[in-house]
Amino acid sequence: MASVKEVFFIMRKPNGYGCIKRLSGNRRRPFVFVISENGKQRPVEYFTNQIEAEIFQADYNKTHNHRSLPGHQITLEELYHRWLPAHTADTAPSKSTLCSYENAFKHLSSLHQEPFARLKYMDYQRIIDDMRKSGLSYSSLKKVRSLISLLSQYASKIELTSKNYAPLLSIGKNRQVRPHKPFSRQKINRLWKAVYSDNVDTVLILLYTGMRVGELLNLHKSDVNIRQRFIRITKSKTVSGIRIIPIHPRILPLIIARMDSPGATLLSDINGKAYDYSRYCILWRAVMQLINATGHTTHDCRHTVTTLLDNAGANETAKRRILGHAGGDVTERVYTHKNIRQLRKCIELLK
What we know:
There is one protein chain. This protein has about 350 residues and is mostly helical. The longest helix is centred in the middle third of the chain and has 20 residues, at about 140-155. A three-stranded antiparallel sheet has the order 1-2-3, covered by helices on one side. The protein has a three-stranded antiparallel sheet with strand order 4-5-6. Helix 4 crosses helix 6, helix 5 packs antiparallel against helix 6 and helix 13 packs across helix 15. A hairpin with an 8-residue loop joins strand 1 and strand 2 (about 30-35). The chain is built from 15 helices and six strands. Helices cover about 45% and strands about 10% of the residues.
């Protein structure tokens, strides 16, 4: 099947439509759209890839010359590349969310060149079924379905089609491959005994704050208030995740030590460079081997905090605020406010 680039090139473009060229050399934006003016070619805009340039060319001619390529139909790939910049500008998704979109889009590769308005329920369900047969996770299936829904909503917005098959797609049931398990008291004690070993402090910070690992990796030192002893989470996967977490007295020295280390983020290497998830996982595995706790994941820290606070009889609303969980009740979400003193009383139930 021809690629989008080939489809655009095969389609005869009228005179004065402009052209796209690839420039030589190692450039960040090697593709350029040029138009003819007074017998000379004038560059209009530069792009990182061909499809972005093709989309710009089509939009430029529609706006300035009031014409479109005859018979052109927007494909799934073109729709995705139109939707993503608009969606990014509106919602400012995190880096991990953008990676999720990219991976989900790759799973739809067999449909990339199909006109979006012609795609039907069975086209999408076939993709989902093939993914399930390949043993891909429920989470992966859900992300593909979510992307289909987002693209369909955008297609409706630009009046391409009003159909959205995403709610009809069957992705099966979520069967947890490895149930999360909290850290035992013995393992937590082992961490404290090894607290001066490399990166053990990072695990203890997770265990005494309930932060998601992504929240910790994105945490800047400017978000930490040592004097008033709290952490402000400004980047999270959910709206409820934007919150304040009191600093537990046991980890206060660990956080102060991290504040005095190089780098703008709380967790940085010796050169001051922030850790991404892949790099941090290497550190995590080393710490788990050190305390003989292999098999634990970073998310087990949140389950540990939840379990220990439940066992200690913590206030449910305060616990939700600390963990960044949405309130289960409208009254709780809208009218119940927990100040820092109440949150501190809750977090200090962790021993």
